[in-house]
Amino acid sequence: MTVRNRGALAALAAGVAALTVATLVACRSQPGGDVGAEEASALASVTPVPPAAAPSVPVTAGGLPAGAETVPPVRLVIPEIGVTATVDAVGINERTNEFEVPPSVDRIGWYRYGPGLEANAGSVVIAGHVDSARQGRGAFFRLRELGQGDTMTATGSDGKARRYRVVAREEYAKTRIPLDRYFARDGKPRLTLITCGGPFDAAARRYRDNIVVTAVPA
């Protein structure tokens, strides 16, 4: 990815939290720590793509490009944590330079400038709120509870349901999340789920960390 694109994607670290203005602390069931970090890393390409050679990733918000052959996810079901959520296609907000998570906390957003469900390589990124002061618990309120071997089903716009298996759950300080890995268009096909985590900073009105769950086709 270009430097410019990485700068826009880096706003995800603040963006998923910036829309989450909760005074709630959604950390009642903390996981025992990161699991599967090495497996998640191994899914990425072992040969970094030079910025100049990387494909351009637009940073504008909007709907899917006309005539796109990409199969966007439209529904995500995670039985283990009681999630059945509608998935919206989102981009980067031009005004705030943040990941455009759907404002309704029961919906989640797929990064439409990355791979779709039909792709045989790359990371399909879906992000969602953990909670909201006005709306309560978000779709990803319990994302931190997922462990290796848990399964989920992503249904595409083509009506096909695709099953995935969790291989990793990681927590990063927002300034240290390796976005190039999680937004990559290369490497093995995988589903990347992102939400907020860690302690809530009432003064900054955001969570300190990001929770990242990586799943592979089952």
From TrEMBL:
MF terms in GO: hydrolase activity
Which stretch is the leader sequence?
A: 1-26
Q: Which CDD domains match?
A: Sortase_F
What Pfam families does the annotation carry? Sortase (PF04203)
Instruction: Cite the entry's keywords alphabetically.
Output: Hydrolase, Signal
In terms of superkingdom, the source organism counts as: Bacteria
InterPro entries (UniProt xref): Sortase, Sortase_dom-sf, Sortase_F
The cross-references to SUPFAM superfamilies, in alphabetical order and at most eight, read: Sortase (SSF63817)
Q: Which Gene3D superfamilies match?
A: Sortase (2.40.260.10)
- Name of the protein described by the UniProt record: Sortase family protein
Organism encoding this protein: Micromonospora coriariae
